[in-house]
User: Fold this.
Amino acid sequence: MRKILIIGIGAGNPDYVTVQAINALNQVDVFFIPDKGTDKVELGRLRKDICERFIEGSDYRLVPVPIPERAAAGTSYRGSVDEWHARLAHDYEGLFTQELGEGECGAFLVWGDPTLYDSTLRIIEHIRAKGFALEYDVIPGISSVQALAAQHRVALNRIGEPVLITTGRKLAEGFPNNLDSVVVMLDGDQAFKRVAGEDLDIYWGAYLGTEDEILVAGKLSEVMGDIERIRREARDEKGWIMDTYLLRRRDED
Assistant:
């Protein structure tokens, strides 16, 4: 039976790749490398660099996987995501049939951790649900959330208190009244501007773990403009950006 490994490779620094992930890399016959166009070619290169650094042999194959753009959400965000997942599942199944022989092991190298705001696991389950014979395992990785907290040297939660991990789309609805600490991912619209009236600190990071890492921290209302400018300039220069941030209510004096 064909097997797929969904390997978390950390948030950008090759040193974030775990021993478990290295052992998994050395089991793989075929790596399926997402191709998201010229703007994100660097992400593909980083995946290839990890293979060259940690795999002992050279008899593995790299297969590019064109990733279609997801349609605009319109009136149904969930509907657009489900449609996108179905398209990817169809494409992946075709690639597995063509590129992965019976008894061979394929892999996806997932940025950060495969269980946190990543679609690969759901797409593989979609393929299996259609009756395609496939085994799979998931190898955890160091997420951008962990890297952000470590680089800012800040705990994600206050003592005895919860922390919420959410998206920019959800934050745009407002900062939760009953929480002190909120981590925000997938925020292409800089939703922190919507909550600038709250008394919050922000710990922001982009390209975490890479040589291009950028960190900004401070009172949200005071550093918000700097983050907008830095983010815009970085994206213009590189063609893409990955950023994450922690918002926290300020301590009462």
